[in-house]
From TrEMBL:
Signal peptide: none
Key words, A-Z: Acyltransferase, Transferase
InterPro entries referenced in this protein's UniProt entry, alphabetically: Acyl_CoA_acyltransferase, GNAT_dom, MshD_Acetyltransferase
Domain N-acetyltransferase: 1-152
Transferase as UniProt keyword: yes
Name of the protein in question: N-acetyltransferase
This enzyme's EC code(s): 2.3.1.-
UniProt keyword annotation of Acyltransferase present: yes
């Protein structure tokens, strides 16, 4: 398996793999296009996995903010992640998440938030974000699926607030 940064030539295949992984709906594929066109896009954090010379998976991490009274903290959100059905359950998703965390840390960000499967992400260090006092108002989701991973030790200490996804997340 080869994990690398997404290139322009991958865009079409990334679109198709997201459509396939999300049960033939285009919402996530279109979300990726909107994020790529937004100022929250960080090219190094759009990462693909190749297997057998084809695109097997993709992960996107991009900028969001946490509003804490009059302060605003820049954070990263993970969305979406997709692995082609034929390549699922072979560790592709895990490698993409680990590489996403590593690169996010390398770029100097302190935390990654996400909304996702409560049983999948804890093994990568994600915990329910509301236990740290973070709020989410833009989406109504159960507590256990709104998660955060502190990637720089101590980053989440002494503050909290409302996670705000940027406009690109809303079509
Ligand atoms: C969620 C998703 C990205 C996971 O990707 P994946 O490559 O299948 O993930 P992994 O292989 O790392 O892990 C999946 C499971 O396979 C298991 N697994 C990992 N490597 C394995 C291997 N070599 N052999 C067998 N099983 C393996 C893992 O333990 C994990 O088990 P779990 O369900 O108990 O956690 C993928 O299923 C997907 O694209 N789903 C549709 C889109 C989606 O829902 N995206 C996430 C939105 S939050």
């Amino acid at each position: 398996m080869r994990i690398r940064t997404e290139e322009i030539q991958d865009h079409e295949a990334v679109y198709q793999l997201n459509v396939e992984a999300f049960g033939h709906r285009e919402d996530e594929a279109q979300l990726i296009e909107r994020i790529r066109a937004s100022e929250g896009f960080i090219p190094e954090l759009s990462i693909v996995a190749e297997m057998d010379h084809q695109l097997a998976g993709h992960i996107l991490l991009s900028k969001a903010s946490v509003v804490d009274e009059d302060k605003e903290h820049e954070v990263i959100v993970l969305a979406p992640i997709a692995v082609k059905p034929d390549f699922q359950k072979q560790g592709v998703g895990a490698q993409l998440i680990q590489e996403g965390i590593r690169k996010t840390k390398e770029l100097g960000y302190g935390a990654i938030f996400l909304i996702g499967h409560a049983s999948y992400y804890p093994k990568f260090g994600f915990v329910p974000a509301r236990t740290y006092g973070f709020e989410l108002k833009q989406f109504e989701v159960p507590d256990e699926v709104f998660m955060v991973c502190e990637i720089t030790e101590g980053f989440l200490k002494d503050w909290s607030g409302e996670l705000r996804y940027p406009d690109s997340f809303f079509s």
